């Protein structure tokens, strides 16, 4: 397992422009009220850090940007309705005619400073935007952070791709340095002031969170970026709370414009595709058997042919955890922010990745909810069983709404977008996860249906027994409409007393019959069994009053 060299090789290409987008899905925890999660966010945001983004559809079409038009037409109609609604909402509420996505942005962080090991100078990159994506009726929020840089050595970019976007350290080295993390990450304001800094080195904080809460803590700089939302285990609990769905590495998207992408080696491509640490250009990061099918499994080479003259060579790579696009700088078809591939990367492909990771996050959230529901079930307590039925029905309803509103296997007829989505979803294992969750929820639904039928059968049995034994009295007292006693001319007060005198014993007999309904049903079964002797039938009758022991 190589640690990788950080020094730039003279033969390595130079990164003229660099973009990295972090897509971090989180599970929202219920606030216990009717307020939507984004409403809870705004209610607690005293500093007004977050502002909801207006839609991209201005009233005056002359103000509509072409890159947004290209983004819109790239998707199929049902995906357009998911992303944008039939008309973008301006009403403050979300209905089925509006987009179910609500986007909030904060603009206080304008740069990020990365402190590297080995005494090297910090690396400062620009922060393009910080957004939160909420999804109506699904307890998932996605943090999106886009950073940019220029004129960087390839190993520097590889190190950023490898180390940036870590929610917490996977461990610590013998000297106390956080494993695979930058020594420190700082968010900077427009005037250069430090807004928040990471605390990866605070080993006691992360160890204590696991010991006390059985969950990992979040580094301080990511906590700051998500405020006023707070981690679920935090003592300062607000209404907007979250917890992690996956492990410490956040999914990323990377766009690289190189001075000469043909100088990238096969090992360089592998490190980028797997977001690996820098290393020797000719030395693969993993074993050769593991990488034997690298091009087939992880590369989309529709536009990649290095030997072709006059060709803007572009390679797209996807491993699920990372999506990387590599092309040549200075070519408008690749780096034009309005009509080139950069615009497509930041819009169509970004939304493709957002949908793919949202699908997986929603399925993981529902799976976690099922586990929590099962863990709270205590079959010996009626209130626990009732709560279990309610939670399972609620989860089933959420799954059905997710399936019919959010989940789709095709998002575009454009070949590139269609193929990338299939490749991305395949590496994320979304279809397999969906089928497993569907089977689990169907099992739960079958259990509820079976339990309902069982309870209905018990009720019908009790009513049948009560009706059968009641018929004996009705036949005996009502034969040919006869009355046993002629009290028709009695005084009203006497009739009331007579009525109560008949009602109370009748009610007690009826309730007692219901109480003994199962045993009486067993006696009736024995009575109808022609193979039984009368002695056996009398023994079955005696079981009605025998105590359980």
The percentage helix is: 40-55%
Helix and strand content put the structural class at: alpha+beta
Beta strand %: 15-25%
Kindly report the average pLDDT value. 84
Shape designation: elongated
Q: Let me know the largest β-sheet.
A: 14 strands, mixed
List the uncertain runs: 1-6, 87-97
Q: How far is the first residue's CA from the last residue's CA?
A: 66 Å
**Gyration radius, to the nearest Å?**
34 Å
Number of helices: 16
- List how many beta strands DSSP finds: 14
Q: Which series of helices and strands comes N to C? A: EHEHHEEEEHEEHHEEEHHEEEHHHHHHHH
What does this structure look like?
The chain is elongated. A hairpin with a 3-residue loop joins strand 13 and strand 14. Strands 1, 2, 3, 4, 5, 6, 7, 8, 9, 10, 11, 12, 13 and 14 form a 14-stranded mixed β-sheet that branches. It has a domain of 136 residues. By secondary structure, the protein is of the alpha+beta class. It starts with 13 loop residues before the first strand and ends in a 7-residue tail after the last helix.
SSE topology:
Blueprint: E1 14-29, H1 37-44, E2 51-52, H2 66-73, H3 77-84, E3 101-106, E4 111-115, E5 123-135, E6 138-153, H4 154-163, E7 184-188, E8 194-197, H5 203-213, H6 220-226, E9 230-231, E10 241-244, E11 252-258, H7 266-273, H8 294-298, E12 299-300, E13 315-318, E14 322-328, H9 332-335, H10 341-375, H11 382-405, H12 415-428, H13 430-478, H14 492-515, H15 517-528, H16 534-542
Parallel strand pairs: 9-10, 11-14
Antiparallel strand pairs: 1-6, 1-10, 1-11, 2-3, 3-5, 4-5, 4-7, 5-6, 7-8, 12-13, 13-14
Helix pairs in contact: 2-10, 10-11, 10-12, 10-13, 11-13, 13-14, 13-15, 15-16
């Amino acid at each position: 397992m190589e640690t990788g060299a950080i020094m730039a090789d003279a033969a390595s290409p130079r990164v003229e422009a660099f973009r990295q987008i972090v897509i971090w899905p989180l599970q929202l925890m219920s606030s216990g009220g009717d307020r939507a999660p984004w409403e809870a966010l705004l209610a607690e945001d005293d500093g007004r850090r977050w502002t909801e983004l207006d839609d991209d559809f201005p009233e005056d079409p002359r103000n509509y940007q072409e890159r947004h038009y290209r983004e819109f037409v790239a998707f199929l109609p049902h995906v357009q309705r998911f992303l944008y609604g039939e008309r973008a909402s301006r009403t403050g509420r979300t209905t089925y005619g509006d987009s179910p996505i609500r986007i909030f942005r904060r603009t206080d962080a304008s740069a990020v400073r990365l402190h590297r090991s080995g005494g090297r100078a910090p690396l400062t990159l620009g922060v393009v935007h910080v957004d939160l994506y909420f999804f109506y009726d699904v307890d998932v929020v996605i943090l999106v952070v886009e950073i940019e840089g220029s004129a960087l050595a390839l190993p520097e970019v590889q190190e950023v791709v490898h180390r940036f976007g870590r929610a917490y350290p996977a461990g610590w080295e013998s000297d106390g340095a956080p494993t695979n993390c930058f020594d420190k990450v700082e968010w900077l304001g427009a005037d250069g002031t430090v807004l928040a800094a990471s605390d990866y080195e605070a080993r006691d904080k992360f160890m204590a969170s696991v010991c006390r809460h059985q969950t990992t803590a979040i580094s301080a700089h990511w906590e700051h970026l998500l405020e006023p939302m707070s981690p679920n285990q935090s003592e300062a609990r607000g209404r907007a709370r979250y917890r992690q769905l996956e492990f410490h590495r956040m999914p990323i998207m990377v766009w690289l414009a190189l001075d000469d992408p043909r100088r990238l080696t096969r090992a360089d491509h592998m490190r980028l595709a797997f977001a690996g640490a820098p290393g020797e250009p000719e030395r693969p990061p993993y074993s050769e058997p593991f990488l034997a099918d690298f091009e087939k499994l992880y590369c989309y080479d529709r536009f990649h042919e290095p030997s072709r003259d006059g060709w803007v060579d572009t390679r797209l790579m996807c491993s699920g955890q990372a999506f990387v696009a590599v092309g040549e700088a200075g070519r408008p078809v690749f780096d034009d922010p309005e009509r080139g591939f950069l615009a497509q990367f930041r819009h169509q492909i970004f939304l493709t990745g957002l949908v793919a990771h949202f699908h997986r996050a929603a399925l993981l959230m529902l799976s976690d909810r099922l586990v929590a529901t099962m863990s709270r079930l205590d079959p010996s307590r009626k209130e626990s069983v009732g709560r279990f039925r309610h939670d399972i029905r609620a989860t089933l309803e959420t799954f059905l709404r997710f399936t019919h509103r959010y989940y789709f296997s095709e998002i575009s007829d454009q070949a590139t977008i269609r193929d990338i989505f299939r490749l991305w979803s395949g590496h994320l294992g979304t279809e397999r996860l969906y089928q497993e969750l569907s089977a689990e929820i169907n099992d739960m639904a079958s259990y509820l249906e079976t339990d309902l039928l069982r309870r209905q059968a018990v009720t019908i049995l009790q009513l049948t027994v009560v009706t059968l034994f009641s018929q004996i009295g009705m036949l005996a007292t009502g034969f040919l409409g006869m009355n046993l006693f002629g009290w028709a001319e009695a005084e009203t007060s006497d009739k009331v007393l007579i009525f109560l005198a008949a009602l109370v014993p009748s009610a007690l007999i009826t309730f007692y019959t219901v109480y003994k309904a199962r045993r009486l049903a067993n006696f009736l079964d024995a009575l109808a069994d022609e193979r039984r002797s009368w002695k056996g039938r009398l023994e079955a009758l005696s079981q009605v009053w025998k105590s359980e022991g």
